C-alpha cells in the first residue's frame, strides 16, 4: 500500500492596523477573525489529536492579538459597538449603519431573520445622499440589535459551543439589552486572550508545527531589490530603486525573536509573505536558522527547464545559493484552491471525498515512493463562505486523514520540520525563480503608478530615518519605534490595494494607514510630517471602465450579437468587479451595454457562464432608474415564456407599482431589451442615472456598477453631430 504524506499549512495573517501613537486600530479584522477563525481552527485541532498540521501565525497578527486582548489597543468598530445605543451621535449612527453589515451576507446575515431584516431596512447598496434618510428610519432598539448582531454573527462555531449565552442570544434574535451586548463583547475579549495559549498547547503536545513570516508581512524580493520584479515581468515599470536586503533580514530576525518569546521555541520554517521568493533570500534564511520555506507550484515550474507536474511537484527540494541551503516545499495549487474557493459550495462529506479522491489520484500518478503533497492556503478567509463556518468540512477532513487508509492509499499528515529531518530532500534546484504564489510574479505589489509611488515614499522616508539615526541625537527607544513604523509601511497589504487589480470599500483607509505609519516615523523623531505624506497615493477608486454612448444605435432584439457594429457606439461597463476582501456579492454578467435611438432606450447584458453565476434562475433583474424619476424595468433572469419585462413606477422612490409590460426583450447568448423613452417619461436633454441589480426577494445579489450609477443624456436630433465634432 502506497503511503502519501500530506503537509497542510494554514496561513493566518492580518496587516498591522494599529497606530501606536493613539493606541487605536481603524478596522476590526484581527478581533473578528480571532473569534470566528483562529479560535475555531485551534479548538478543532484539539478535538482531533491525530491530525498534524502547520499553522503559520504572522507576527503582525500575534502582536495585535496581544494588544487587543490586553485592552491597550481598541479598534474603532469595538468602540462604536460598546457605546450605548441611546447615546450614539449622528456620526456614530451613520458609521454603524455603513459598516456593521461587513460580513458575508449569504452565510452570516441572511440565516438570522433579525440581522437580515436590518440589512433590508438599511438597503443593500445605498447612495451617499440617502444616508441621512436611512438613519432616520432606525430606532434606538434597531441600532442596539445591529450592534449585537454585528458581533454575534462573527462568533464562530467553537465560541458558540463554549459560551451558552451566545447561543441563547441567537435564539432570542431581537430586543437585545445593553447587558446582552456586553456579554457578547466580554466573550470576544476572553477568546482573544485564549488564542495564543491555545496554539502554544497544540505545539507543546507535538500536534502542530508553528512557522512564521517576516514580521510585518513584506514582499522579501522587493525589499532585497525592487529591480528584481523584472525577472518575471521584464516590462514592469519600476520605481526609484529600493534595495535593502538588511531590511529583509531585520524583518525575519524580528519575527523569529518575537515568536520565540511567545511560544518558547524558535521556528525553523518560514512562509514568506505571499509565497514570494528569490535566490538572494536563501543565504539570509540559512544565516537566521530557517531550515525550510514554502511557495507556489508555479514558482517551481519556472525554476526548472522541463516542467512535468506529477513527476516534479510532490517532493521537497534543496535550494543552495551562495552558501545558503534551505529545503523548499511547493504547494499544490489546485488542491489548496479547492479548499479556499470551491468546497464552500458543496456538502462537507462530498468535499472531503473529493479532497481524498484527488490525493488518491496523486498517489497513483506520482513516481515518488512516498509523495509529499503540500496544501497551503489562508486559514481565515475561507470559512465565512462555508454555511457552517467550515466546521463540517474540517471535522471530516481531519477524521479521514487521521484514519490512516482511504481506498488503498495510506494517508499520513506530516509536519515539515520533522519531515525534512526524517526524509532529507534529494532533489536540488539549479536555479530559483523570483516570484510569488500569484501568477509567479510580483506585479500585485509593484509596477502600477500607485505601487511605484508608494515604494518611492517608503524609500524617501527610509533615507530620512537613516540620516536621523546617523546624527546620534534621537533617543534609542524613539529610534526603535520609528524603525518599526517604517517596517510596518513595508508590509505587502498596503501595496495589495494600490493599482487596479483588487478593490474594497476600505481602499482609502488602507492608503491612510500606510501613510500614517510613514508619518509616524517623522513624528517619533520629533520632525514635522512632510507634505508628500499628506497626499493620498490613490489615484483611482476602481478599475471600472465606464463609457457613455457615442452614437445612436438600433440593434436587433434577438438575444444574439447579430454583427459587430450593432452595439458599436453604445456605452458599456464591465460587469465583473475588482476583487473584494469581503466577497459579499455574486457576479452574473461579464459586461453591460446601454444606448439609444432617438425614441428607444436599449440594454444588453452578457451573462457569465452558468458555473460562475450559481443558482440564479429564481432571481430578478432590475434596470433601476434613479434620476430624474424612479422607475424599474423588471424581468426574470431566466426569462419566462413568452419573454417580457414589466415597468414599475414610483412617486417617492420607495413604493413601486407595476405600470405595464413589454415583450421587447430576448435572451439567447445575451439579454437584449428596448423601452421607449416616452414610457419612462424622459424628454430629450434630460440627464438620466441608472444601475442594474440582480435581486432575490429583497436581497441584492449583484449590482452593476458597484459603486456609482451609470449616466447618460437623452438624445435629440443634434446628438450625433455633436459627438462627431468631439
Topology:
Elements lengths: L1 E11 L11 E2 L3 H18 L6 E5 L1 H12 L3 E2 H7 L7 H10 L5 H5 L3 H10 L8 H6 L3 H13 L4 H6 L1 H9 L5 H27 L3 E4 L8 H5 L20 H19 L5 E2 L10 H7 L4 E5 H5 L7 H4 L4 E5 L2 E8 L1 H10 L5 H18 L6 E7 L12 H12 L2 E2 L2 E5 L2 H7 L4 E3 L19 H23 L4 H14 L2 H6 L9 H18 L46 E4 L14 E8 L3 E8 L2 H4 L6 E8 L3 E6 L8 E6 L5 E7 L2 E3 L3 E6 H4 L6 E10 L2 E6 L5 E4 L5 H7 L1
Parallel strand pairs: 1-3, 1-10, 1-12, 2-4, 3-5, 6-7, 7-9, 8-13
Antiparallel strand pairs: 8-9, 11-12, 14-15, 15-16, 16-22, 17-18, 17-23, 18-19, 19-20, 21-22, 23-24, 23-25
Overview of this protein structure:
The protein has 726 residues and is α/β, with parallel strands linked by helices. It folds into three domains: 1-70 and 193-233 and 242-441, 7-stranded beta/alpha barrel (Alpha-Beta Barrel), CATH 3.20.110; 447-533, immunoglobulin/albumin-binding domain-like (Up-down Bundle); 571-725, Sandwich (Immunoglobulin-like), CATH 2.60.40. Helices cover 39% and strands 19% of the residues. The protein is built from 27 helices and 25 strands. The strands form five sheets. Strands 17, 18, 19, 20, 23, 24 and 25 form a seven-stranded antiparallel beta sheet that branches. Strands 1, 3, 5, 10, 11 and 12 form a six-stranded mixed beta sheet that branches. A hairpin with a 3-residue loop joins strand 15 and strand 16. Helix 8 (140-152) runs parallel beside helix 11 (178-204) and helix 18 packs parallel to helix 19. The termini are far apart. Residues 578-585 and 611-616 have low confidence and may be disordered.
